[in-house]
Amino acid sequence: MLNKSDLSSSLDFVINRLFMKLFRTNIIETVEVCDQFGFDKPSVLWARRVRNFDSKFVASKMPFVS
Prior knowledge:
Blueprint: H1 4-22, H2 28-32, H3 42-61
Helix pairs in contact: 1-3
């Protein structure tokens, strides 16, 4: 089973390779510029979704105040 860092790095690797092939480059700095165009890497998206889920889960466990 993969841990969090292995999962995020492997997903990021796939996206990096995709952009490297798309832009026909072997320079990773060129691919990292894609972050400036609103494209988030899978590790960033994963962390954001986990954070949103955790906050909603905690909010659902709180008793309603009347």
